[in-house]
Amino acid sequence: MITDGAYQFVRHPGYLGHMLCMAGIGLALSSLIALGLTILMLPLLLWRIRHEEQMLSAEFGEEYLSYKKRTKRLIPFIY
User: Which pTM does this prediction carry?
Assistant: First the structure.
């Protein structure tokens, strides 16, 4: 289990990067459709994160639960 680098701030930095890229493309193109798709993807992403965290908790046990307590899920220092 990796807990350094970007993972010391958020548990899912890849998903955060993906959402930022999608939002950035929407803003760069001045596209409300792209921004809307970014917003529509968020519930699906949160659903996937919830299931991945259940799997990781089952696989790594107390080590992952401890990691969850000291990091945020998706947005550094907030969520």
Answer: 0.84
Token pair in block for residue 39:
């917003």
Cβ atoms of 48 and 42 within 8 Å: the answer is: no
Q: Delimit the domains of the chain by residue range.
A: 11-70
SS3 of the chain: the string is CCCCHHHHCECCHHHHHHHHHHHHHHHHCCCHHHHHHHHHHHHHHHHHHHHHHHHHHHHHCHHHHHHHHHCECCCCCCC
How far is the C-alpha of 35 from the C-alpha of 47, rounded, in Å?
19
- The pLDDT, as a whole number, for residue 50 is 96
- Measured CA distances, 68 to 7, 30, 51, 64 (Å): 11, 36, 14, 6
- The mean pLDDT of the chain is 94
